[in-house]
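dumping this here before i forget
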Amino acid sequence: MLVTFLRHWMKNGPVMLTICDTNILLFWADRRDRLSMTAQEALENGRVQGELACAAISFWEIALLFRKSRLILPTQHTPTSYMEDIVDSLGLTILQLTPTIAALAESGIIVHGDPCDRLIAATAMAYQAPLITADGKLRTTPGLNCIW
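structure:
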């Protein structure tokens, strides 16, 4: 994914990423009816343009949901293959945790009880990218450009 992203960037110039929250990845994979029309359009446009990304922590969240039986795996999938299918289908760039993102997540700017959501929001803010999210708390965060 990183190689594809870098090739696109070198060929076409800087890419404006759109970050997907974990809930958006899950809705896209299994419950597209739960996506707003605006979110669906942003996902489709980002997928076609190769501009969708997510924070790496989203995959830990998904794995945790499987372990806690809050998500049921489709019969043809392992947790790994399920997550890889999401990455491949959306053409996601996976954004790693950096010191800047970690510090921003814990700076007090992002008021959210879930540390994963703070890291996802901080990732979007660090990349100056919009975040597609159904999370109402995140959508009220000052300085965070949300799509829903």
